[in-house]
Amino acid sequence: MCRGAFGETVMQNIPVVDLQAFRESGLAAIDQLALVEACEDHGFFLLVNHGCDTQVQNVFAAAADFFAMPREQKVAVYRDAENPLGYYDRELTKQRRDQKEVFDFKAGGHISRNPLRHTRWPERPNHFRPALTEFFTAFTELSETTMCMVLGGLGLPVEAVENTMARGFGPAHTSAARLNFYPAQDPVPAAERESVTPLGDMALHHHTDPGAITLLLQDDCGGLQAQSR
User: What are the beta bridge partners of residue 48?
Assistant: First the structure.
């Protein structure tokens, strides 16, 4: 590690974890010490051979098509105070408005019993809902596997890890997924900007994600930063 331009700690060698090796051979196939240190010091590590490349490719394509649609089609599935699932373009982080558009969703067996809190799916693109549903299912399993690996690396007995992997985290867990899109211009129409918080100085300000674990995907655009301990 070294010091960056503003004095922050920069992780030069991101720990890489091979999920295929873990699935085939268990904890013995990974560097448990490096995994634990990555979690404790940075909260980040890189997963490879996760087996979800097709789902990732499909959901990136579906997201690009959705966010490219006219605004009136996107706001047809606008989220509100009663339902946090759907499209939104004026989210605040640290009391600053982000320059981003999002689509929040759940799928599969993790849909709320309250119909007012179901994902608001757009009619188009036609491949949008199938791609996101398949992605959600695959990444739910991937998150469970990753969490079990972390628990094992932290010293949880092997039997407990194996039981957790076999059982999963059950239907009660609160997994959710989000598509983020960062447009070059303010996504809020000029006529509506006086009634909302002004834009912040970043597309998305510093924050801590809710929940126990986040599986984060990035396209070929840079800019992602993580704060070390």
Answer: 18
The half-sphere exposure of 60 on its side-chain side, counting CA atoms within 13 A, is: 11
Task: Please state the rounded mean pLDDT for residues 41-68.
Answer: 94
Q: Let me know if 89 is exposed, middle or buried by CB neighbors in 10 A (0-12, 13-18, 19+).
A: buried
User: Residue 107: which of 166, 180, 179 has the closest Cα?
Assistant: 179
Q: ∠ CA 121-122-128 to the nearest 5 degrees?
A: 85
Q: Which fold is adopted by the domain 50-148+170-195?
A: Jelly Rolls (2.60.120)
The model's pTM is 0.86
Residue 9's DSSP bridge partners are 3
Q: How many CB atoms lie within 10 A of CB 137?
A: 15
pLDDT, tens only, 138-152: 999 899 888 888 888
Per residue in 150-200, pLDDT (tens digit) is 888 888 887 777 676 666 666 666 789 999 999 999 999 999 999 999 999
- Tell me if 212 sits within 8 A of 148, measured CB to CB: no
What CA–CA distance (Å, rounded) separates 120 from 87?
A: 8
pLDDT at residue 126, as a whole number: 97
CB-based burial, 181-196: b 16+ in 10 Å, e otherwise: beeeebbbeeeeeeee
By C-alpha distance, which of 137, 147, 185, 189 is closest to 169?
Answer: 147
